[in-house]
Specification:
single chain, alpha+beta, Nucleoside Triphosphate Pyrophosphohydrolase, 5-stranded mixed sheet, 3-stranded antiparallel sheet, 4 helices
C-alpha cells in the first residue's frame, strides 16, 4: 500500500517578506540547522481565512507585524514530502502541503524582528537576494521556490 497516496495535503500559507532593498527574509529552521533557509510559512487553522493565517504565521515566526501587502500570488504551490519524512512531520497526517503565497513589504526596522517566540521555528535569519532563494531551500521545496521567483520579481517591478 502506498501511504503517500492515501494522505491528504495540508493547507498552508507562505510569506515573501521584502525589505526596502527588495531583499527577502529567510530563516534557518531549528529542526534543520544545516545551511538551509526558508521563508516564513505554516498551516491554516480550521475556520481561518488565508490572509489571517499569513499574518498569524508571520508574527509567530518572526515577530513581524508592520507590513504592507503587495499581492496574493495567483494559484497554489504544492510540495510533497520525501518518503523519509512521511510519518515524522505533522504527526504523519499529511503527504505535503498546498500553499497560498503572499508578497509583503516589511515597513519596520530589523530590530523589530524577533524569532525567539513561543512557537520558535528559526534559530537565525537574514535578508537574501531573491535570485538566491532556490539555492538555500531544502531540495523537496526547491521547485516551489523556483516557481515563485518570477512572481516575486513581477510584483516589485
Amino acid at each position: 500500500m502506498n501511504l503517500k497516496k492515501n494522505l491528504p495535503l495540508r493547507l498552508g500559507v507562505g510569506v515573501i517578506v521584502l525589505n526596502d532593498e527588495d531583499k527577502v527574509f529567510v530563516g534557518k529552521r531549528k529542526d534543520n540547522p544545516i545551511d538551509k533557509w526558508q521563508m516564513p510559512q505554516g498551516g491554516v487553522n480550521h475556520g481561518e481565512n488565508l490572509l489571517d493565517a499569513m499574518k498569524r504565521e508571520l508574527e509567530e515566526e518572526t515577530g513581524i507585524k508592520n507590513i504592507k501587502i503587495i499581492k496574493e500570488i495567483e494559484g497554489w504551490s504544492i510540495y510533497e514530502l520525501p518518503n523519509y519524512l512521511l510519518g515524522k512531520i505533522w504527526r504523519g497526517k499529511y503527504r505535503g502541503q498546498k500553499q497560498k503565497w503572499f508578497v509583503v513589504r516589511f515597513l519596520g526596522r530589523d530590530n523589530d524582528i524577533n524569532i525567539k517566540s513561543d512557537h520558535q521555528e528559526f534559530i537565525d535569519w537574514k535578508w537574501l537576494d531573491i535570485d538566491s532563494l532556490p539555492s538555500v531551500i531544502v531540495n523537496f521545496k526547491k521547485k516551489v521556490y523556483e516557481e515563485l521567483l518570477p512572481k516575486i520579481k513581477s510584483s516589485i517591478n
